[in-house]
Amino acid sequence: MMELIDKINKLKKERNAIILAHTYQVGDIQDIADFVGDSYGLSKKAADSDADVIVFCGVHFMAETASIIAEDKTVLLPEIDAGCPMADMIDADKLRKMKEVDSDAIVVSYINSTAEVKAETDVICTSSNVLKIVGNLKTNKIIFAPDKYMGSYVAAHYPEKEIILADGYCHVHVTILPEDILSLKEAHPSAVVLTHPECQGEVVKLSDHILSTSQMLDFARESDAQEFIIATENGILYLLNKQNPQKKFYHASKYAVCPNMKKTTMEKLYWALEDMKYKIKVDKDIAVKAKRAIDNMFFYTEK
Ligand code: 13P
Ligand code: SF4
After folding, report:
1. What pLDDT, in 10s, does the model give residues 197-246?
2. Torsion-angle region of 250 (φ positive above 0: left; ψ -120 to 50: alpha; else: beta)
3. Residue 232 alpha carbon to ligand 2 centre in Å
4. 85 lines ligand 2 (CB under 6 A)
5. Strands 17-22 and 35-37, bridge-based pairing
6. Atom of ligand 2 nearest to the CA of 87
7. CA distance linking residue 59 with residue 158, whole number of Å
8. CB within 8 A of 46, min separation 6: which ones?
């Protein structure tokens, strides 16, 4: 392994590359990455980086978003088949039809969406800024795509707003059930429940805080609590344990594992840098429109 790590670091230097990794990646990838974070943090890093090459250890929509934001850079996805099924649950046609029915609505799409869907969107959001963005919008009629659970969470928070939901969901987060939380709470009564907004409403209701993955890391580090129940994909346990060796973390469900996030290996990361593959590029017309929606996200988040 040491040899592989050295080879990756050497190639990274030669290519003037930066390695970005999502919090659900395997531990080795998180360790070698220049930055590990949630979708929003990773997008910011892609926007601010002065590297020539961005190697994105995550899933396809994340690399696609980076390539839209950092149009002059080469963006590589080490495993071309690492997709996000939720992102593919709505396409541009389906979204256009929703827009025809509710033509007076603003479209807010989760960053877990394709470039074509982003191009049909007014404002992109992530799990860390969704409430702020929707709260900052003047209009009270919103089409939310594709995650119906995140959309329902937003709707519950803003009862004065009409949120029209698409019907996507994350097949990983739905494996976390209310009974999982209830039995863990019973076994660990002082544990704080941290939940991702992709979880089902019944799980959200039983939780103490609804957070993005980076927000969970910040919360766990800063909190005086010693025990946490973590309702999201289990890859995040790696950093939670590493950063807080004295605290205890219980994953809500052993089934909450994203198979696509686990497809990136150290070997594939090395081959990506060696062969400069797989280059992720978005059609110019689509990219220009999608970028507008992503720039609106940065605007409404920092407002
Ligand atoms: P975060 O932005 O909170 O890391 O979530 C991304 C994701 O894909 C969750 O399933
Ligand atoms: Fe997509 Fe769910 Fe995997 Fe996140 S955890 S990348 S939403 S499938």
Report:
1. 999 999 999 999 999 999 999 999 999 999 999 999 999 999 999 999 99
2. beta
3. 10
4. yes
5. parallel
6. 1
7. 30
8. 20, 54, 56, 65, 66, 69, 70, 73, 75
Instruction: Say what the pTM is.
Output: 0.97
Question: In order of start, what are the domains of the chain with their CATH numbers?
Answer: 2-84+261-281 (3.40.50.10800), 87-169+286-302 (3.40.50.10800), 173-251 (3.40.50.10800)
For atom 6 of ligand 2, which residue has the closest CA? 84
DSSP code of residue 145: E
What Rg do the C-alpha atoms of the chain give, in angstroms? 19
Q: Give the CA distances from residue 104 to residues 69, 101, 141, in Å, rounded to whole numbers and listed in that order.
A: 28, 9, 7
Distance 37 CA to ligand 1 centre (A): 9
Among candidate residues 145, 133, 59, 131, the one with its CA nearest the CA of residue 102:
145
